[in-house]
Fold this sequence. Notes:
- It is a single chain.
- By secondary structure, the chain is mainly beta.
- It has one domain (2-94): Barwin-like endoglucanases (Beta Barrel), CATH 2.40.40.
- The chain has helices at residues 30-36, 95-98, and strands at 2-14, 17-19, 25-29, 43-48, 54-62, 69-72, 84-94, 104-106.
- A hairpin with a 5-residue loop joins strand 4 (43-48) and strand 5 (54-62).
Amino acid sequence: MFLHILKSKIHRVEVTEANLDYIGSITIDEDLMDAAHILSGEKVQVVDNTNGARLETYVIPGKRGSGCICMNGAAAHLIHVGDTIIIIAYALMTEEETKTFKPSIIFPVNNHI
């Protein structure tokens, strides 16, 4: 049996941009992606601490060192510039694998490591 386990979390970053005309996804500064071990194209859950919105999308790498957190496409209707969000990625693993697995959780300051 496989379980959905927390793999990565970027805790409390501020949305810096919103692009309604994009076809979808969230753009994240590559430094933040690397620190949290989140990959380009990976499915993530985005939780908005400001308004309670929750959604799933995929990640696009943003400019390294920029602090960029951009909601793209329809998600920009739910999560807005200035909102504080948490970005979460999960992994499927066996119960045995969970015993030694340690998630990557980062706590950026002003959207930077």
